[in-house]
Structures are given as C-alpha cells and as structure tokens.
Specification:
With 288 residues, the protein is α/β, with parallel strands linked by helices. The chain has one domain (27-242): 3-Layer(aba) Sandwich (Pyruvate Kinase, Chain: A, domain 1). The protein has five helices and five strands, in the order H-E-H-E-H-E-H-E-E-H. Strands 3-2-1-4-5 form a five-stranded mixed β-sheet, with helices on both faces. The longest helix has 75 residues, at 210-284.
Length: 288
C-alpha cells in the first residue's frame, strides 16, 4: 500500500478522534452554561431588590451619611480585581479580559495592586510582574459562595484599611451567547449615581434608623456586585468555550471531508497507474 494512503488514513482517524473530543467538550460547556445561567437568573431578584432598597434608603439619608464607601478620596494606590477563566480552549476570551486589564493598568499614574480570580489571570499577572496581593482559582461551582465572600472580604479590607484608594473590577459581561465583552467598572468608592432612586420617594419608617441601615447594606451591596461579576464571567467563559468547540468540531468535519477526497483521489490515481503499467507491459510483450 502506498505510504501516502497510510498517512491520509492516519490523518482521517486522528481528525475524527479530535472531532469527538471537541464535540464532547461542547456538550459539557453547554451543560455548565445552563447551570450557571440558572443561578444568575435565580440571583437577579435579590440583586435588583437590594439595589432598590439601597436607592430608597440613600434618598432618605441624603447628606446625612458619612460612610467611607461613599466618600471619594485622593487616589494614591489603585486596586484592580481581574476576573477571568481557569482553562483555555475558549477562543480569545481570556486574552480579551487581559488586554482590557493591561490597558487600564497602563493608563494609571499611581501604583496598582492586583487581585486575580482565575488561574489564567494569575499566570498572566505573574508573567508581567504585577504587584499581585492575592490569587484565587476560578469558581468551579457557582454555588461556592464562601470563596466569593473571601474575594469581597479582601476587597473591602484593602479599601477600609487605606491600602488602596479606589477599586476597579475588570471582567467579562455576558450579554448574549455571542457577545461577552470585557468590562471595567468601579467598585469602591460607590458612585452616587448608582444609588439614585426615583424622584418621588415614599415615606418609610426605618428600624434601625436609615443611616445605620444603609451602613449595613453597603457591604452587602459590594458582596452582591462581586458575586454578580464572578458569575457573569463564568457564564461568558462557558459560552465562549461552547462556541470555540463548536467551530473546532465543524473544522474537523471539513478536514475529514477534504482528506477523504484526497484519499479517494490518491486511490484512483494508484489504480490508474497500475492499470497503465499492466497495459504497457502487455503491449511490450506483444499481447493485443
């Protein structure tokens, strides 16, 4: 058997095996995406109602609350929370987040301290010799609330102790299956615009007093925001991986089709060459 036929058959077999792997990874990513989306949807009512309550309480306590989370201060150090993925095979997902983080860090004129979530972000931060305070692996299980609280606790601690004067979060915002752009948002101090409520505020009787209630709600708001950021990034990662594996599976099928055509063409050329050799030999010995 000609060597090129063996090589083509080997390539077809290998490509078919790769296609089976990418198809399986696509199905796994789709299952994880569905579970993560369900958790995001389940948490939306809490997140939205918390924002509404904060806006209502802030409207009542306007000008009466001197909370450090609401007071801008002179920036000497910036903290950056970078949230990415743990693994590759998801296209340019992690690179896009890192590019957005790099551009933000490069634009700062003061020292930057970094917190990373996701092994890919930790490796990139170490490779670029950034000042990394803490690194967490990506959240494998979206129900792992304690890890997310640890991230929120460190962010709050750094800001409360004055180690950073502003905290920026850079993550992937899941908009749709094909759109999950990197986003940069300010976590601390909380912008006044984020606490704006309706112009007409209903009268409430607060127990405890509104100022004390708002002081208790603000840390919860930071935790909820970080929880939303990590979950959104995880959903976007699974969507990017599912799209990448779907494209890889389609490419494998196209390669198999092309290699099969080459194999058939090579076999036909081999058969034709053998027939020509037989006919030429017969004519040489005088057979008609």
């Amino acid at each position: 058997m000609p060597l090129n036929l063996r090589q083509l058959r080997r390539k077809i077999k290998t490509t078919r095996q790769i296609g089976q792997i990418t198809r399986a990874m696509k199905l796994v990513a789709a299952a994880k995406l569905k579970r993560a989306q369900q958790l995001v949807q389940a948490g939306q009512p809490y997140y939205q109602n918390l924002q509404k309550v904060l806006a209502d309480v802030a409207a009542v306590t306007a000008g009466q609350l001197d909370h450090p989370y609401l007071q801008p201060r002179e920036v000497h150090t910036v903290g950056v929370l970078i949230v990415g993925g743990d693994r590759g095979l998801c296209g340019a997902f992690n690179n896009n987040i890192w590019q957005a983080a790099s551009e933000f860090i490069a634009s700062q004129t003061v020292p930057v301290k970094v917190i990373t979530v996701g092994r890919r972000m930790a490796r990139l931060a170490q490779r670029h010799q950034l000042d990394v305070l803490q690194s967490w692996p990506g959240v494998r299980d979206p129900r792992d609330v304690p890890q997310m609280r640890q991230v929120a606790g460190l962010v709050r601690q750094l800001y409360e102790q004055g180690e950073v004067d502003r905290v920026q979060a850079i993550y992937a915002d899941f908009v749709s299956m094909v759109r999950h752009p990197p986003v940069s948002c300010q976590l601390l101090p909380i912008a006044a615009a984020e606490l704006e409520g309706p112009e007409e505020v209903s009268e409430y009787i607060f127990e405890p007093p509104a100022a004390q209630l708002l002081a208790e709600l603000l840390p919860r708001a930071i935790e909820a925001e970080i929880y939303h950021i990590i979950l959104s990034t995880q959903v976007a990662e699974q969507a990017a991986r599912m799209i990448a594996m779907s494209a890889a599976t389609d490419n494998a099928e196209d390669m198999i089709t092309g290699l099969t055509r080459q194999l058939n063409r090579a076999r036909q050329e081999g058969i034709t060459a053998e027939l020509l050799d037989v006919i030429g030999g017969a004519q040489a010995v005088g057979f008609d």
